[in-house]
Structures are given as structure tokens and as C-alpha cells.
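If you are new to this repository, start here. Below is one unmodified record pulled from the training split, so you can see the exact layout before writing a loader.
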Amino acid sequence: MWTLYDLPLNPDAGIGTRYNPNDGTDWSLGVKTYGPPLNKATAAGSDEVMRAFIVNGTDRMPAFKYYLKPAEIDAIIAYVRTVPVPAAPAPSAQK
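And here is the target side for that same chain:
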């Protein structure tokens, strides 16, 4: 299982500061993603649905049932449940 210390160092933020993927920074760098946004609302908030996706895979994601132990899958689900749902963008104030 990974920890915060597995994240790369952030040289712009000072010595020993690590990148935080949840700090509101756009980490996409313009790269197109193919999966859904992962946050506490993923899989309609159902841990069992998320577990089924991880274990069995989908057309665009491999199954991990032979690669991850049940405790590792539980840890992934627990982590995703800590990621807040992004706020909806504010409506444009154009007239």
C-alpha cells in the first residue's frame, strides 16, 4: 500500500514538501483522461459496486482480482471515499 511519502517531492514548495493531489491544483497537465473522476460519490457511493469494478474490471480497465489482495482493494476504496466531490464550476457572469 502506498503512503503520502511515496508522492514525489515538490521542489517549488520548499525542501521536503511533497505534491498533494488533493490540494486543488490541476495535475492533469492537459492530458485527456479516460476514466471517471474518482471521489466519495464514485459508484453511487457504494463500496460493493466499486469493489466489483476493481475486481472484475470493465471494457476500459483491467481486472485486478489476481493482483490485489482484498485488504489492498479495501484500502483503495477507503482512500477514494476521502476524496471530496469537486465543486461545480460557477456560472458565467457574461451578459
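Two things worth knowing about this chain: The CA atoms of residues 44 and 50 lie 9 Å apart. The first helix runs from residue 47 to 56.
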